[in-house]
Amino acid sequence: MLRIADARTGHLVEFPSAHRHLMRICVHLPVIDDGIGPVHLRVLLLGDVLARTAELHNLQTLTVLTAPDLPQEQVQALDRVMAVLGIHPPATVRAHDPSQTPSAPAEVHVLAHGADQQDSSGGVRIDVGEVSTAPPDEGGPGSPDAAAPEGSDPLALRMLLLGHPHSTPVLVTGAALAQARRTLRHWRQLVADWAQEPSRPIPADLLRQAHAALADNLGVPAVLDMLRSVEGNADVPAGAKFETFAHLDRVLGLDLARDVGHQHQETP
Predict the structure, then answer these.
(1) What angle do CA 222, 14, 9 make, to 5 degrees?
(2) 20 to 30 A from 142, CA-CA: which of 54, 62, 113, 241?
(3) How many angstroms separate the CA atoms of 44 and 110, rounded?
(4) What CA–CA distance (Å, rounded) separates 237 from 197?
């Protein structure tokens, strides 16, 4: 059972409902004035994580992206952003039109904090916290483009955002992105090493703990903390560590098994 906190009431709403086993998700993209920015990424990412979590809990999902009427170049940029950040494309993209009634109401609406859109009425509302970037003179990356700076791992930004509860503001700094890149590189090397050992089942207590965290209002930060604990736990066999990381990456979307079968070397 998946429980999502409704931003309107603060109450937890359980899915699936008694009569439905399909979760319709509507992701409302904020107005794009000066290009796609971090807040747009976070809204898209939350919709992706919600769909992945629901599917992990055996719920079918259908995601609709509601966006402003965008010129073709911004539509193409949006497609590139979703691709590099591992965000599954929505089933449907439609222009934001408050006067239009969707053919089927959404059970969950994902919006940027403070957004007031009439077509988000009904269903559960998830507010996504603001994202800001520290200026370069304060150790920040300035305003990195949506696909991340050239030559870096764009999934580091995904990991950085996933490390915070989805409703809280996030400050993106150069140091935080660098740490996320180091962690990703380290975990991918470990996963590749563990893959060479005999496979072992995921310990039942770890599986319950991870699924319970995700079911409780998308507790992804708790899952990341659990993986950090599993990484150094000598009581968990290497093969079980591999299965644990690979299984939870179905939600995290960090491509943790990317180096399996390839020669690799960790860069300091």
Answers:
(1) 85
(2) 113
(3) 8
(4) 9
CA separation for the pair 153, 239 (Å, rounded): 26
DSSP string over 1-39: -EEEE-TTT--EEEES-SS--EEEEEEEPPP-SSS--HH
- Give the total residue count for the chain: 268
**Cβ atoms 158, 170 nearer than 8 A:** no
CA 123, CA 64: separation in Å to the nearest integer?
14
Q: Residue 128 and residue 98: Cα distance in Å, rounded?
A: 20
User: Distance of CA 243 to CAs 13, 201, 222, 233, 235, Å?
Assistant: 31, 7, 18, 14, 15
> For 54-97, what is each residue's pLDDT tens digit?
999 889 999 999 887 778 888 888 899 899 999 999 988 776 55
Top pLDDT among 195 and 33 is at 195
| Both structure tokens of 237 | 């066999």
State how far the Cα of 219 lies from the Cα of 28, in Å rounded to an integer: 21
Say how far residue 151 (Cα) sits from the centre of its chain: 22
3-state secondary structure of 114: coil
**C-alpha triplet 135, 267, 163: angle, nearest 5°:** 50
Q: Which tokens belong to 238?
A: 């290497």
Amino acid at 242: F
